[in-house]
Design brief:
Distance between the termini: 33 Å
Shape: globular
Keywords: ATP-binding, Nucleotide-binding
Number of helices: 8
Number of strands: 10
Organism: Kribbella deserti
Order of helices and strands: EEEHEEHEHHHHEHEHEE
Bound molecules: adenosine-5'-diphosphate
Radius of gyration: 18 Å
Structural class: alpha/beta
Helix content: 25-40%
GO molecular function: ATP binding
Largest sheet: 6 strands, mixed
Mean pLDDT: 90
Strand order of the largest sheet: 6-7-8-3-9-10
Low-confidence stretches: none
Protein name: ATP-binding cassette domain-containing protein
Oligomer: single chain
Domain ABC transporter: 4-233
Strand content: 25-35%
Length: 233
């Protein structure tokens, strides 16, 4: 069964129908790429899955259970971690502090960790993920956009996310940085997560995705798996 399953989900803002009848399954070990032009409903979809908005019709199930999230915390506690393009991390805080940010409250064992232990774990985990940050005391705002995305992804994996939702993670990046981030998206999939990769960039989607969903004016215009695509005529 899908980890997250939207069935005929609708969402409107007043009389603007941002999503209509959207059916979409996110499965463990898959990278589901959600493509679509501005206004297609991508942000609205993210907000519903990550607990920022409720939906008006249809059903969203998480692990087979119908859910209406009333806060981002609820989504996170259900294993859905969202990494936003600009707000992935707190820019003025150190790298190691960011690694634990947002998790110390609910994850029992982590709140009792002392500073030295948190620094050691952040260092070990980032190294294990192949992210080399020489100085974990430096503010995250000093790092490149690609490094920040990678730290946010590593953090979600370490804290046990089941689904990783990525909001245009490569949109602001150049070719090299995009390549690095795409590599971490694959790592997250290999770690067993279901990944939702929201992007404008069909090339980036095709490089890593195996499941492609195109939204058009709030509806699903295409839902296909890589195995079903033939490039020959
Ligand atoms: P995308 O992220 O693909 O650009 P959005 O989900 O942001 O699409 O928008 C889908 C539709 O919903 C658009 O028509 C947009 O104008 C509208 N919309 C989005 N957010 C709001 C809002 N808070 N209030 C009113 N309309 C909104
Ligand atoms: P939220 O929906 O997150 O509670 P808002 O409704 O203020 O907060 O807006 C959410 C996002 O949607 C913001 O980025 C905002 O700029 C955008 N937005 C708001 N109204 C519209 C609209 N009519 N069309 C497109 N985007 C909108």
């Amino acid at each position: 069964t899908p980890i997250v399953h939207l069935e005929n989900v609708g969402k409107s803002y007043g009389n603007v129908h941002a999503l209509r009848d959207v059916t979409l399954a996110v499965r463990q070990g898959e990278i589901t790429c959600v493509l679509g032009d501005n206004g297609a409903g991508k942000s609205t979809l993210i907000k519903i899955v990550s607990g920022l908005h409720d939906y008006n019709s249809g059903t969203m199930s998480v692990n087979g259970q119908a859910r209406h999230f009333s806060s981002p915390r609820e989504a996170l506690d259900s294993g859905i971690a969202t990494v936003y393009q600009d707000l992935a991390l707190a820019p003025l805080m150190s790298v190691w502090r960011n690694f634990f940010l947002g998790n110390e409250v609910t994850k029992g064992p982590f709140k009792v960790l002392d500073t030295a232990t948190m620094k050691r774990i952040a260092d070990e985990e980032l190294t294990k993920m192949g992210i080399s940050i020489p100085n974990l005391e430096q503010p995250v705002g000093m790092l490149s956009g690609g490094q920040r995305q990678c730290i946010a992804i590593a953090r979600a994996i370490y804290f046990g996310a089941k689904v990783l939702v990525l909001d245009e993670p490569t949109a602001a990046l150049g070719v090299n940085q995009s390549g690095v981030v795409l590599k971490y998206i694959v790592k997250a999939r290999d770690a067993g997560l279901g990944v939702v990769f929201i992007t404008h960039n069909p090339h980036h989607a095709y490089l890593v995705g195996n499941h492609f969903v195109v939204l058009k004016l709030g509806r699903v215009a295409l839902d296909t798996h890589r195995a079903d695509i033939t490039l020959e005529q």
